[in-house]
Amino acid sequence: MRSKFDEEMALLHRELTQMGALCEEAIALTAQALDGDRGLADRVPALEGEIDQMERDIEALCLKLLLRQQPVASDLRQVSAALKMITDLERIGDQANDIADIVSAIEAVGQGVVARLRTMAQAAIHMVTASIDAYVCQDVDRAKKVINFDDTIDNAFQEIKIALVEHIAKNPELGEYALDQLMIAKYFERIGDHAANVAEWVIFAVTGVHKGEKL
């Protein structure tokens, strides 16, 4: 019975890793599309659909583990954490798709902020990857590093916000365009928050302690 449980837990880890990889790909496509390549942005909705399906599949697997396998306390925390994590990963997919929608609607993101947006995207990809790795390895230290790394995205967002406010003040006719850029930055910031949430649930899975989610 235990060997069957271990096999299904290994499957859960693989599925979570795959869901995280899809999120990484969606974020990467939005970053590459910032130069105005709508073809890349157009690929994101299909990825979001895959992410949504994986959320449903993993949820079903978690419920199966809870109902049929009667896990002990430590296993129960892992499965419960996974159920929480997939909600954050699904939201990451949604927000990557939101970015793709904006990118598809404008000609290109201004070069003045595109480098900072790419920095945010790379930081978000790193956080998603590291948070999933921390779960699979049950590594609390790695999870804590993910949470601390969220400051990188937050700082980049603040820099972009200040730059865009100054740009709007000097060029009020470009206000709507600048607000689109600000929304892209805000979505990247939220992706970082959700990756930090995932890391918080990793800590819970290992220690049983959870400090609370970022909204």
What share of the residues lie within helices? over 70%
CATH-defined superfamily: Phosphate transport system protein phou homolog 2, domain 2
Taking pLDDT < 50 over at least 5 consecutive residues as the criterion, the unreliable ranges are: none
The domain count comes to: 1
CATH class: Mainly Alpha
Largest sheet: none
Write down the secondary-structure element order: HHHHHHH
User: What radius of gyration results from the CA coordinates?
Assistant: 19 Å
Question: How many strands?
Answer: 0
| Helix/sheet category | mainly alpha
Tell me the span between the first and last alpha carbons.
38 Å
Number of helices: 7
Work out the strand percent. under 5%
Mean pLDDT: 89
| Level-2 CATH architecture | Up-down Bundle
